[in-house]
Backbone:
């Protein structure tokens, strides 16, 4: 069993949490087009109109526990695979918004939520949840969201697109072992939104402008703020578009 398709579910990430101990596969997928209680980053809700979009989660149980910088590699690789998916659809001006949103022309078309579970100080498994806005046309006043349909003017077959996603992600385990941090970082930076521009951020201290210098890990970024190089944590930093 590698792929589970559900007619409806509260959250594909939460479903995997419940069943993962019963599944032997090191890599398996859960897809739905009707997610009723989706979760986003920073405890936000991920809303998705029924049967308009693709919501799916990947459960990945690394064979070697805690290989070097696995979480960082996984973070970058997931965004890069999604980028390829959208590029194949000919979506224009696609960028990764740090840490891991996918934008087209500065509007979000996909979000990623990576959760890991730890056992005796090692990463036991990752649950990688991905929401893609495909045929949804309105976003309840969220101005920075968009969908494939709004961009290309075509209603897409969700089954066809899920099959493609499944294919693109099906060798994730092999890719993560083969691709180096150096290679992934180069590709990630090439596709990063706002590199070399002055961007608007906010943290617990308020709003400020800064340039991205380097992405350091899955949750740390180095910024140039008022000519000072400072490291920030993704838990306390928001990049505003
Ligand atoms: C974000 O941008 O805030 C992340 C959104 C992640 C949404 C996906 S949809 C599939 C999976 N199940 C969830 O409950 N959340 C993720």
Residues:
């Amino acid at each position: 069993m590698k792929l589970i398709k559900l007619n409806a579910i509260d959250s594909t990430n939460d479903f995997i949490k419940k069943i993962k101990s019963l599944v032997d596969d090191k890599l398996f997928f859960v897809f739905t087009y009707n997610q009723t209680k989706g979760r986003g980053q920073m405890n936000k809700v991920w809303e998705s109109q029924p049967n308009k979009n693709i919501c799916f989660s990947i459960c990945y149980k690394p064979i070697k526990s805690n290989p070097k910088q696995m979480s960082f590699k996984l973070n970058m690789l997931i965004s890069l695979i999604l980028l390829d998916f959208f590029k194949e659809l000919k979506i224009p001006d696609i960028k990764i918004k740090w840490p891991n949103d996918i934008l087209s022309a500065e509007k979000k078309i996909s979000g990623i939520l990576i959760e890991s579970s730890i056992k005796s100080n090692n990463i036991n498994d990752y649950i990688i949840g991905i929401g893609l806005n495909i045929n949804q046309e309105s976003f309840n006043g969220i101005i920075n969201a968009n969908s494939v349909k709004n961009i290309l003017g075509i209603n897409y077959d969700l089954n066809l697109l899920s099959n493609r996603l499944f294919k693109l992600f099906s060798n994730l385990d092999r890719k993560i072992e083969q691709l180096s941090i150096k290679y992934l970082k180069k590709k990630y930076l090439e596709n990063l939104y706002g590199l070399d521009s002055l961007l608007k951020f906010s943290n617990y201290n308020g709003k400020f402008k800064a340039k991205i210098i380097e992405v350091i890990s899955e949750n740390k970024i180095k910024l140039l703020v008022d000519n000072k190089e400072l490291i920030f944590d993704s838990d306390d930093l928001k990049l505003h578009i």
In short: The first strand starts at residue 3 and ends at 6.
